[in-house]
Structure formats: C-alpha cells, structure tokens
Write a structure and sequence with these properties.
50% of the residues lie in helices and 13% in strands. By secondary structure, the protein is α/β, with parallel strands linked by helices. Helix 2 (26-35) packs parallel to helix 3, helix 3 (51-65) packs across helix 4 (80-93) and helix 15 packs across helix 16. The chain is elongated and about 80 Å long.
C-alpha cells in the first residue's frame, strides 16, 4: 500500500513525501488501517520494521484532526538515543505542520526541557525516569494526554522500567479517554499484562519476523584465539574497507580497549557506551550518520536507537550473551531490504554463547578457522594475553613511554631475576605448543555441529570437575584425618608462640621497671 491511498492530512502527506516515503511497510500498513479511529493496539514487530513512523503518523493525523486542540501525545522509549531518534523522525514527518515536538531524557540539564514545556508541546517523547521527574515536580502536565505510545516495551521491562510505566500510566487520563499503542519486538507476560490492564479492547497485530539472518545477510563466523582478534580485525579492515561499520563488544571496558587499539593502528573510530555524556554521544552519532567517521565501537545497550540505513558491515568482536541480541546486531546491516555483511569472532571464551545463538536462529552459522593469512601486522601490543595487551604488561603507556615509578625504575620488573637463554627458549617452546594445541581445538570445533560442540565442552570440563572433586570414601577419610592431624599440630605451634610472646613481654616489663627505679635513685642523688 502507498501512503497516497491513506486519507491523511495534506500537510502531513507533504512531510511523508519530503522524507522520501512512498510505500508502507507491513507494520505501517496494518497499523494505519485500524488505528486512525482511536483503536487501542498491541503490536508485535521486530526492530527496524518501520513501527516508529506507524505510531507517529497515527498520533499526528489525529492531533491535526482535533478541533479544540485540547489533547497532546506521550511517546515512551527506553533510552536517550531512541528518544532523539524518534524526535528526529517526528520532526521530519511534521515539517509542514504546526505540531510542536520535544524530547525529555536524563543525562542533560532540565532547563531547556522545562523551557520547551512552558512554550507548549503537542508530542512529548521521553524516557520514563525523566518524565516521572518532570511530572512530580509539576513541570510536565500529563492530564491532557489523549494518545500514548510505548515503543520497545519488551526492552523497557528488561531494563527494569515496569514499575515506572505503571506509575506513569496511573496519572494519565483513563483508558477510555486516551488511545494506547504498545509496540514490542517479542511477546512476554509483562507486555501482555500491561496491554490487558491499561487498554480497552486492543487489536493485536503481529508481524512475523523476517528471516534476515538466512536470506539477507552474508554471515561468517571465524574461530580465533583471544589474543589474535585484533590482527584478524585489522586484516578485514585493510582488505574490505567498509564504508560504514559497527563493531559490537559486550563490555564498556572492551569498547575502550578496542577503540584505543584502532587509534594506535591509525584507524579513525569512536566508541559509544552508556557512561558517555549525552552531548558527547550525540556528537558521535551525528558524525557517524554524516559519514565523518565510518567505524563505531558500541555495546548493545548504547546501540539501542542507532538507526543507520546504509550500514555496510557489522563485526561481533564478542559473541553476545543473549541469543536475541545476535539478530539485533547483524540485522542493522539489512534494513529496508538491503543486504549486508556480518563477521563474528568466536574465541575460546565465546564458544559457550554460540550454541544458544545457533539454536535461536535455527541455523548453523558458516564458520572457518583463522589462519596465518588472516592476520595483519599491528602496531604496539596488537596481540592480547590474559585480557591485557603486551604494551600494557611491558610497562609502557599508550605513547610508548616507560611507566617509571619512584626514582625512574619499574621496581616490579627490576626485582625479577633474569631468565637464562635456555629458560627463555623453553618458555617460547611451551607457548608454541600451547598455540598448536589451541589451533587443533579450533579445527575440531569448526567441523562440529552445535550439539557436538555442546557435548565436547560438557565432556571436557564437567569430566575434569568430577575427577577432581570425587574420590573414594577411604581417600576422603584419609585426607580428613590428615587434615585433623595437621590442625592439631597447627594449634600446638600457635600455643607455643603465644607462650613465648607472653614470656618476652614479662621480661620487657621487668627491664622497664628496673630502668624507672634507677632513674628515681639518680634523680634523688643529684636533686633533679
């Protein structure tokens, strides 16, 4: 269906045309055919399906049709980034209308937001925490909300917003006096309860998730050891030179590490995570969307709300801990029917997350083992070991200067005995043997099915635990008796030490008394 087939306000339709929209997506078509008369909705549709425009057009059309202009709308979203994105979309669609739009979220000052409220806002877009703050301080009046849209409801519940949502909805006009629309990527009991409790006869719309992981995205999983991830990444960047790329990490610390290493290797990038100030995050996102930077390192939480239609590539530096997040990550390369490329690095630390992901997508990801040809040379500390890079472990900072301490020497290193040549060669041979062993394991993993991988690791680790933890009864009794004997010996030693300390203290006290007596005699003799 084309937008021209809908009976929309002329000024609103100009905004749609100006935004370049012609045909409705499936969720937009289903929503707009039933929502424009004020019907409550519960919509299940995946991220990136176009649901933002669906509820914004519903709200805008009805606000413009309201003769007495007595109502306004509230859109609740889980993150600041998503609030900014929804506001941008709303302003684009409402460009030729007189609708007033503003967003309200934490991490920034209240002044501008309060100033916008004083001027009047038709569509309020916000995160639950900031909206509650403004409502309780009497700065935001929610008594005239005629339209409520809750976007990404499932994510809000995951982030602990369920009590806040219930609290907010209770201060709004009743369900019969407003239109309520809930949008969620997945179906869960919290969303169902919210829909049942705070809507009236909602129409349920379900848009089947497209199998983007199979049909639209070129996926490749590469088995690689942890310390070789950076050389592998640099080789991909050097060869493919993606126009736009998001690299996903599981932790904020890993984002910082990777961004630092990319800069050390002359790769321009930025990282985005929840702890960055809002102004800084928005600057980074604007630069990324404008193409001023083409590589973004991000966590899953910070990436919520990133909407880049022409993203060429996604790289999973870490496998996500939740299987669903794998689809959210790689799906960013296949928006609006476009194809994309997704690389996933699977190290010995990530392999446990692989089986749930492959079960979730009902497909084994095409995989291979990284070889020497897949690694590029990297500058300063490219290979990682035990979670830290070699440059950090050698005592050098990012500029290559020695981290001297107290007198210009690294005491921890200087106090260590130097190894002989034979010891050094032996250590290197041990590392080489360990590397060969790990490579053999990666080769095995690449040829296994998901179930075989699970069985392999279950046998490898559970078996070791049982061997280490289980002994015969006689062995356990023997070890217990030995422990008891050892305990008795320890108690005797402790008692002897205590007696010795007591005797020494008594002698010291006696000597102290003798000194005092001698001092008194001398004082009396000399009259002092």
């Amino acid at each position: 269906m084309n937008y021209s087939e809908l009976n929309l306000n002329g000024d609103l339709y100009k905004g749609i045309e100006n935004a370049g929209y012609v045909s409705c997506t499936p969720v937009q078509e289903k929503v707009l055919t039933v929502s424009l008369d004020g019907t409550d909705l519960y919509v299940q549709s995946q991220t990136g399906s176009g649901k933002t425009a669906a509820f914004l057009l519903t709200i805008m059309q009805q606000l413009m049709a309201d003769q007495d202009k007595s109502k306004n709308a509230l859109v609740l979203v889980p993150t600041r980034e998503l609030a900014v994105q929804v506001e941008e979309e709303a302003r684009k669609l409402a460009k030729f209308t007189r609708l007033r739009i503003a967003s309200f979220f934490g991490g920034v000052g209240y002044e501008k937001q309060i100033e916008a409220l004083k001027k009047g806002v038709d569509i309020l877009i916000g995160t639950p925490g900031r909206v509650i703050d403004l409502e309780e301080s009497k700065q935001m009046d929610l008594s005239h909300i005629g339209y409520l849209a809750i976007d990404e409801a499932d994510r809000m519940f995951d982030m602990g917003f369920y009590p806040d949502l219930r609290k907010l909805i209770k201060v709004l006009p009743t369900a019969g006096e407003r239109q309520t629309m809930l949008f969620s990527a997945t179906l869960n009991s919290y969303v169902k309860n919210l829909a049942y409790e705070y809507t009236e006869n909602p129409v349920e719309i379900t848009i089947e998730a497209q199998n983007i992981t199979v049909d639209e995205i070129d996926q490749e999983l590469i088995h690689v050891s942890s310390e070789k991830k950076l050389p592998l990444l640099m080789n991909i960047l050097n060869k493919e030179k993606p126009e736009s790329l998001i690299i996903f990490c599981n932790t904020k610390r890993e984002c910082e590490y990777l961004s630092r290493k990319l800069h050390q290797n002359d790769v321009k990038s930025e990282y985005i995570m929840g702890d960055l100030p809002q102004k800084k995050r928005q600057q980074i996102m604007d630069s990324f969307k404008a193409g001023k930077i083409n590589i973004l390192v991000a966590t899953d939480v910070a990436a919520r709300g990133i909407d880049v239609n022409d993203l060429a590539m996604v790289i999973n530096w870490d496998l996500p801990n939740e299987a669903e997040n794998y689809v959210h990550r790689i799906g960013r390369t296949a928006r609006a029917g476009k194809s994309g490329k997704a690389y996933t690095f699977c190290s010995e630390q990530d392999v446990y997350s692989l089986m749930p992901i492959e079960r979730y997508i009902e497909k084994q990801i095409p995989s291979r083992v990284a070889t020497d040809e897949d690694y590029a040379e990297v500058k300063q500390g490219g290979e990682r070991k035990y979670g830290r890079d070699r440059a950090d472990r050698s005592g050098r900072n990012e500029k290559g200067d020695r981290n001297d301490r107290r007198g210009g020497k690294n005491r921890r290193n200087s106090d260590k005995p130097q190894r002989s040549g034979n010891e050094y060669r032996g250590s290197r041979n041990g590392v080489a043997a360990e590397g060969a062993k790990r490579q053999d394991e990666l080769d095995k993993l690449s040829k296994m099915t998901s179930d075989e991988r699970a069985a392999y690791y279950r046998e490898k680790f559970s078996g070791n635990k049982s061997k280490a933890g289980n002994g015969t009864k006689s062995e356990n009794r023997k070890s217990g008796n030995n422990a008891q004997k050892g305990k008795g010996k320890h108690n005797n030693v402790t008692q002897n030490k205590a007696k010795a300390r007591s005797t020494a203290a008594s002698k010291a006290q006696g000597k102290k008394s003798e000194k005092k007596g001698l001092f008194a005699k001398l004082k009396s003799l000399f009259g002092r």
